[in-house]
Design a protein that fits this description.
By secondary structure, the protein is α+β, with helices and mostly antiparallel strands. About 35% of the residues lie in helices and about 30% in strands. The strands form 6 sheets. It has an 8-stranded antiparallel β-sheet, sandwiched between helices. It has a 7-stranded mixed β-sheet with strand order 2-3-1-4-5-6-7, sandwiched between helices. Strands 23, 28, 30, 31, 32 and 33 form a 6-stranded mixed β-sheet that branches. Helix 2 packs across helix 11 and helix 5 crosses helix 7 (about 160-180).
């Protein structure tokens, strides 16, 4: 095996040759074999022994991953290999497959130009398969396809060679249909995968063999030989005839783009600055002699170095001493160290040129999605996560002396993983952590106890609800405490198209910038005049200033925005976040003396007006839903359907195939976070397999809302009876 330092030395020599670089992610549904496949590629590079590849799971280096044999974070590794007599580098990212860690996949897509989509043909296309492929398409990352665990079709399902080929061809057609549906305009047909082109491979990562067009041509291998050797269980001959590393790397080199090919079509997708500016041209051309521009897609914590940022260098040459602006801020920070990740290890190097992935030390207060640039440039488009936190737990240190340590640990964890949210409940003083699901929070708890050594206690899971409205009301008056200023607002539901555009990232949260932002809102369904008047977007809510000729309104606008932000982050009904509301300021009377229009007067005035408007309209609760795909033997179908319906589940689809039934059901999260797994396992004698994914928020049934609101208010230390609009209108 090669020493990591030697591999890094070889890799850094080749980093300036764009034609021989591939930035690649491995994506799949959970347990379809991404990390096992990564092992085989690392064995080819000499980083691990071939004899243990597929089983050692090298990139699952955290203890918690080894214990669960599951990837829970993205792992970065760079290595070189020889193909057809030429040296190549792969900057590889092994991503998680579990839905709770989908945020890591979303972030990794920003850094790569192509993906290896891994599919287990026994299970077929699972919910997360489609989700990760959609994410790759959104970031213009080209796919190739690897069917893993193909031997299961022969040994477990006992399919004939003809049935196996039929099943695989059907899956290829389904994946190509998804590529056509989700690929950017003009790329659907180009990016479809096919055996004839050589962009599909079939094999077993655990048993270290794979067959593809390349293997058929160079080794004269046939599917019949593969079937025969599998039937005989002659692994040695199979590995000799069909080496997995050769099949996979051939696909990567021949079919995935190098940075110089990918950046001209990826940059306009993810950066909305002037493409004809010097920096725009440099990034389009992957110019390593230009000014350096980097996008950060990961934050890790190192015990020695502290905060380490992982980023894709789009132009220039990142080296020690380079001074960077962070996301368009005026002040500059100096880069202290640059390196390459080799799984768990970070190896320091002199410089990383454009087209590569690097680790940065010395730049403070970075967040995922930040832009590092030598000159002041328009920041890259924010990385938009598909799912939202739906489960919350209250958490506190067992020993109050560890509270500061807990706060610091949570700060680090939320930086590493922006899909995790942590906040302090001001009424109760407890810390609240919100995540994608129970497993997500369980991993966070384990890290706090084991990695940060903070003994903690946690509450039962709590569901995250949203507050919204269904009709327009106004104008509603809100007065300042000193009665010198008054604000009149209308509140109304935000059009569905606009909410969807915010979810998808085509409309960004924050203050809309420029004509591009206005046109995006108009295209999504907002009237042109309203789009021009929007001052702030928060939590899928908008504040618009429609006033005409009101004195001093511009001077208090920042305070009005702060008050609006506070109101929509802490709604009036159950103190949950408000979503999908347009607040329009239609008139105002503002005191001429600045002393009488400070924060203590303006913030309560606008908040009271918004609260009164929401309550007058009739606030309703929205609850999070998840799509469950449940696979069970046919005998249990009626019991399981009755069980799901008893939990307020909506049966969306039922498919039957050879004694197995697949049920797709939309379930309220509130009904599945307590006891659901045990009940389902019990009634199917442990034979049920299920996966879930976020399905958005939907209105809660009216008959349940009052009870849930009272429970939430009681938990948050509020009077159980919700407030009336009049309480905010006096």
């Amino acid at each position: 095996m090669a020493r990591k330092e030697y591999v890094v030395e070889e890799v850094t020599k080749m980093m300036r040759d764009h034609k021989h670089i591939r930035n690649v992610g491995i994506i799949a549904h959970v347990h379809h074999g991404k990390t096992s496949l990564t092992d085989s590629l690392l064995a080819r590079a000499g980083l691990i022994a071939k004899s243990v590849a597929g089983d050692v799971l090298y990139t699952n280096y955290e203890e918690i991953e080894k214990d669960r044999r599951m990837t829970i974070k993205s792992a970065y590794i760079s290595f070189g290999f020889n193909y057809k007599g030429e040296d190549y580098i792969i900057n590889l990212i092994d991503t998680p497959g579990h839905v709770d860690f989908g945020g890591h996949v979303t972030r990794s897509m920003r850094a790569i130009d192509g993906v290896i989509l891994v599919v287990d043909p026994t299970e077929g296309i699972m919910p997360q398969t489609e989700t990760v492929l959609r994410q790759a398409m959104k970031e213009k990352a080209k796919p190739v396809l690897f069917f893993n665990k193909v031997d299961r079709l022969l040994t477990e399902l006992r399919l004939t060679p003809e049935q196996t080929q039929e099943r695989l061809l059907k899956l290829i057609n389904e994946i190509n249909q998804m590529i056509e549906n989700y690929a950017p305009e003009g790329y659907g047909e180009k990016w479809k995968v096919s055996v004839e082109k050589g962009s599909v491979a079939f094999g077993s990562a655990l048993r270290r063999w794979a067959i593809s067009k390349r293997i058929m041509e160079t080794k004269n291998a046939t599917f019949k030989q593969v079937f025969d050797l599998t039937a005989k269980n002659d692994l040695e001959a199979l590995q000799e005839l069909c080496p997995i590393d050769e099949a996979t790397l051939a696909m990567v080199v021949e079919h995935l783009p190098n940075p110089a090919e990918a950046q001209p079509y990826r940059i306009p997708q993810i950066w909305h600055g002037d493409l004809n500016s010097p920096d725009g041209k440099a990034m389009m051309n992957t110019d390593m002699n230009a000014k350096t521009n980097v996008v950060i897609f990961g934050i890790k914590y190192d015990q020695q170095a502290g905060e380490v940022a992982v980023g894709r260098v789009f132009s220039g040459n990142a080296k020690k001493g380079t001074e960077f602006h962070v996301s368009g801020k005026q002040d500059v920070q100096k880069l202290q160290q640059v390196g390459i990740y080799m799984g768990p290890d970070r190896i320091i190097v002199d410089a990383i040129p454009a087209g590569n992935i690097a680790a940065f030390v010395g730049i403070k207060n970075l967040s995922v999605g930040d832009t590092l640039s030598e000159d002041m440039i328009e920041p890259f488009e924010q990385i938009k996560h598909y799912s939202q936190p739906v489960v919350t737990k209250a958490i506190e240190a067992k020993d109050s002396r560890d509270t500061t340590k807990l706060i610091e640990a949570l700060r680090m964890l939320t930086k590493e993983d922006p899909t995790l949210r942590a906040e302090i409940n001001q009424e109760t003083g407890e810390h609240l952590i919100s995540g994608m699901g129970e497993l997500h929070l369980e991993i966070v708890e384990t890290k706090l106890r084991d990695d940060f050594k903070v003994p903690i206690t946690t509450s039962e899971p709590i569901v995250v609800y949203h507050e919204t409205i269904e009709r327009k009301v106004g104008p509603i008056e809100g007065k300042s405490p000193n009665r010198h200023s008054r604000f009149f607002v209308n509140v109304e539901p935000l059009p569905e198209g606009v909410q969807k555009a915010i979810d998808e990232g085509t409309i960004r949260e924050g203050k809309p910038k420029g004509q591009v932002a206005i046109e995006a809102m108009i295209a999504a369904g907002l009237p042109r005049q309203t789009a021009k008047e929007v001052e702030e977007i928060t939590n899928k809510c908008m504040l618009a200033d429609t006033t005409k000729g009101v004195q001093y309104v511009n001077e208090v606008m920042e305070l009005l925005i702060d008050g609006f932000d506070e109101a929509v982050k802490d709604g009036p009904l159950a103190r949950e976040k408000v979503s999908g509301v347009l607040v329009s300021l239609v008139d105002a009377t503002i005191h001429e003396d600045p002393v009488h229009r400070g924060p203590a007067q303006i913030l309560p005035a606008i908040k009271r007006a918004i609260y009164a408007g929401l309550l007058t309209s009739g606030v309703v609760l929205e609850e999070p839903k998840q799509n469950f795909t449940i696979s069970i033997p046919l005998d249990y179908m009626s019991d399981v359907i009755s069980f799901l319906q008893s939990k307020r589940g909506q049966i969306v689809n039922i498919e039957q195939e050879s004694g197995q039934v697949s049920i797709l059901a939309k379930m309220p999260v509130a009904e599945v976070i307590k006891g659901f797994s045990n009940d389902l396992r019990g009634m199917t004698q442990g034979k049920a397999i299920w996966y879930q994914e976020f399905a958005g928020y939907e209105r809660m049934p009216t008959e349940l809302q009052n009870k849930v609101v009272r429970e939430i208010r009681k938990r948050k230390g509020q009077p159980e009876e919700p407030p009336k609009p009049e309480q905010f209108m006096d």
